Amino acid sequence: MIQLQETMLEHKHAHLLAHGLGAHLIDAWLQHTRQAQRVLSALLIDPLELHGPEHPSELSSWRTIEPTPWPMPLAVLWKE
């Protein structure tokens, strides 16, 4: 999350694209940053289901993305 924050501070605006656990990283970052206005849009591709039996216990500290409004256009794509 620190690297994402530092990268966003280097750019006036950005579009974010994340896959898997990266989608959860963006969600966590948005909950804590004051730089969300720099994000023009976000595309999340196949966010991980974190609490299923097939995922390792190392992911137990990550939280599921809650359906809360984001301050920018958002698209989420899941594979079937």
Structure description:
By secondary structure, the chain is α/β, with parallel strands linked by helices. It contains 2 helices and 3 strands, in the order αβαββ. It has a 3-stranded parallel sheet with strand order 1-2-3, covered by helices on one side. Helix 2 (21-32) links the parallel strand 1 (14-19) and strand 2. The relative contact order is 0.24.
Keywords:
single chain, 80 residues, alpha/beta, 3-stranded parallel sheet, 2 helices, 25% helix, globular
How many strands, what sense, and barrel or not for the largest sheet?
A: 3 strands, parallel
Helix content: 25-40%
Distance between the termini: 29 Å
Q: C-alpha Rg, in Å?
A: 13 Å
Structural class: alpha/beta
- How confident is the prediction overall: mean pLDDT? 86
- The largest beta-sheet arranges its strands as 1-2-3
Poorly predicted runs of 5 or more residues: none
Secondary-structure element order, N to C? HEHEE
Counted by DSSP, the helix tally is 2
Number of strands: 3
- Strand percent estimate: 15-25%
Principal-axes geometry comes out as: globular
